[in-house]
Amino acid sequence: MGFDLDLTLADTRRGIAATYDRLSERLGVFIDSAVAVSRLGPPLESELAHWLPPEEIPAAAALFRSMYPEIAVPATTAMRGAAEAVDAVRRAGGGVIVVTGKHPDLARRTLDHLGIEVDEVAGMVFGAAKGAALTEFGAQAYVGDHIADIEAARAAGAVSVAVATGPYTADELRDHGADVVLPDLTAFVAWYEEWRVSETGTVSTVT
Q1: Could you tell me which residues come within 8 angstroms of residue 190 by beta carbon, excluding any fewer than 6 positions away?
Q2: HSE of 182 in the Cβ direction (CA atoms, 13 Å)?
Q3: CATH number of the domain bearing residue 36
Q4: Hey, is 126 helix, strand or coil?
Q5: Do 78 and 10 meet the contact criterion of CB atoms below 8 Å apart?
Q6: Is residue 207 part of a domain?
Q7: CATH number of the structural domain spanning residue 174
């Protein structure tokens, strides 16, 4: 089973906003952290391109990531149902991979902070580019909050499980072709148990 991180397993909004605010101060460049957080999903460099010229992005990204463990990680909380969702997969004997646009070291630090144990972490990938990591791991489904996570699942030939806890509504996720739409991860365990034991292998949409 694959999971996205930001706004799927982890509520990173407050910590990421604070890190952008500190970066803005350090660079002397205006960055609207609220706007940046509203676009969580793509890798950091994609967001920095909205605020900085291309030649300044690599150094700014390195500075942001150097500050992240001290500022953002302690401010991160688990999304509702996240721990229970991962535990349900592990109790059933399944493996768990987190595939995220975040740097893998920061993703692991975040998961350690939350006490969520996974088998593998793949980072700095977005959209269909996540498919390679999901395929290599053998993930049969991928859970995420972004329409790009639906594309990731498609690229891996996996079931797309969308949670309406990020920037997209349940209707938007459904319209983009998610196989399953959940309001949040508190609904995951019930869906997972039904899907896991399904004799036909078909998955009904849950709203």
Answers
A1: 206
A2: 23
A3: 1.10.150.240
A4: coil
A5: yes
A6: no
A7: 3.40.50.1000
